[in-house]
Design a protein that fits this description.
Strand content: 35-45%
Order of helices and strands: EHHEEEE
Strand order of the largest sheet: 1-3-4-5-2
CATH superfamily: Hotdog Thioesterase
Radius of gyration: 16 Å
Structural class: mainly beta
Number of domains: 1
Number of helices: 2
Helix content: 10-25%
Length: 140
């Protein structure tokens, strides 16, 4: 994880990722347990991962890009799906910070993250708005 950054050090256009993830049955099982779903009722049919399977990794990716643990609250999350995520391969995530602003004394960052399969096919695109506590420059 990168060193903690201040709000002013985080720039629009800063990259997120790339990072690879294995899509196997263990990863899906971990996803189901992480979400605390009843695995007996969770649809696990066919050679595909659930659509939201890899969205949970966005928090880690954003933390690495934004510089440290901090406190994060997802204010908004939008996803556009193009292809299913197939079991047995890898997915690659990469993105960037597309906006940042302060509202009511809180700092917000907007990120775009795209997920590709090993062949480079776009599987889905996410835009997420994160309210985050970051250090502020000390003003004399």
């Amino acid at each position: 994880m990168s060193a903690e950054k201040t709000f002013d050090e985080i720039a629009i256009g800063d990259g997120i990722g790339p990072k690879e993830y294995l899509v196997d049955e263990k990863a899906i099982k971990d996803f189901v347990e992480y979400g605390q779903w009843d695995s007996k009722k969770f649809p696990m049919k066919g050679p595909y991962a659930p659509p939201g399977f890899s969205v949970t990794s966005h928090a880690r990716l954003s933390a690495e890009a934004l510089g440290g643990p901090g406190v994060r609250v997802w204010a908004k999350s939008e996803h556009e799906y193009f292809q299913p995520i197939r079991l047995g391969g890898k997915i690659i995530k990469k993105g960037k910070i597309v906006d940042k602003y302060t509202k009511r004394g809180r700092d917000y960052f907007v990120t775009d993250i795209e997920t590709f399969d090993e062949k480079g096919t776009l599987l889905f695109r996410s835009r997420e708005t994160i309210m985050m506590s970051v250090k502020r420059e000390e003003k004399p």
